[in-house]
Amino acid sequence: MKVASAAYCIFLFATLFSLAFGTVNIISTLTLYFTLLLLLLLLLFALKKFGLLSSYYRKLQLLAASIVITLCLADLGLRYIIEPRAYLTYGEINGDGYYSLALRQKFRYFTTPFLPHNATGWFHTSAPNSTSVFKNGEFNYSHHYNHEGIRDVEIAVIKKKTEMRIAAFGDSFTEGIGAPQDSSWPALLNNLFVINGDTEVKVINAGCAGSDPFFEEYLFNYKISKYQPGVVMVAINNSDIDDIVERGGYERFLPDSTVKINDSPWWEPIYASSIVSRLVVRNIFHYNFQLMKEKEENVRRLEALEKLKQPIAEFIRLSKQNNFKLIIIFHPMIEELGKKEVSLSPLISWTKNQPVTVIDLYDEYNHYFETNHLNPKDFYWTSDRHHNSKGYQLWSNFVYGKLKEQLGL
Prior knowledge:
This protein is α/β, with parallel strands linked by helices. It is 49% helix and 9% strand.
């Protein structure tokens, strides 16, 4: 009994520590079922003390243990053998595991005594001067980050008088997940300038996986603006809507330089740790992958679209204040290609009526693939769904052409 109690305490500690970083693992699953078994046994013990179920106590104990062990084995089989894609997150499908900022927020106080700065901060960047490896069944690439935590070389604060700097902001598509360091679209765009003799142009890759336009505006305002870019490009895609649904808009930024995102349901730790619970939550209670019901999701997505106008408007204001040219780039996920209307359509239409240059890669890609009879799947990774190097090259070609055409660079 002492050994079992000690093992449970260790598992519980490891689970709470993992949840404080927004992740779960096999220990989390085992801890969940150990806890369920413990609660059932305590309930049976209490009923026995009140004189109930006395004659069936041992049989019910055995039944409870059998049910919990069966569910646990079924859960582990689903997670590690069957791997039902419809019930896995994007990260789990691609080998990164379950990750949730909302979980990290719920359990952040658990790690505060050990890691006082564990709270998510204003700047959604990677660790300064670090290297991360993005590896799944389709690719394996290292990402090297400078002291600002962005996937680029070190940049001198003082630029030459003849130098033109272009800062590219966005999420994982701009950081360049799915491609080597030299094949993100900002890096390839920089190469196009060099190849064509514009050696005084430097493209800064300020894209960060998991970022969104609110984080990007803060990143520009507080960190990247000192590099004095003459052109700022902000890439937006459909996943930004989901990000705003989860995180909110400017209200997320707290005065103490941390952020507070929207809370998830209290039961998310159970959902995250158990595939069986996901089957129940999704099919019986009809929650989606964002842990919302359809009606709430529709309302929140419409609100998110409206909120996305705010950082665009702020970037427009900053472009006038800091005297840089602003370009907003809308780019499609592979599943959106060929569609006349997409989730971002209202925002794209609104932005085109603002005093800003817009590059609509939805139109550009659809026309290019149709005219040249090309398969879009050749430009995206099949499972990961990011661009491959060929896709990022196509992106940089379109941006380079628009920069030359509209801005005379």
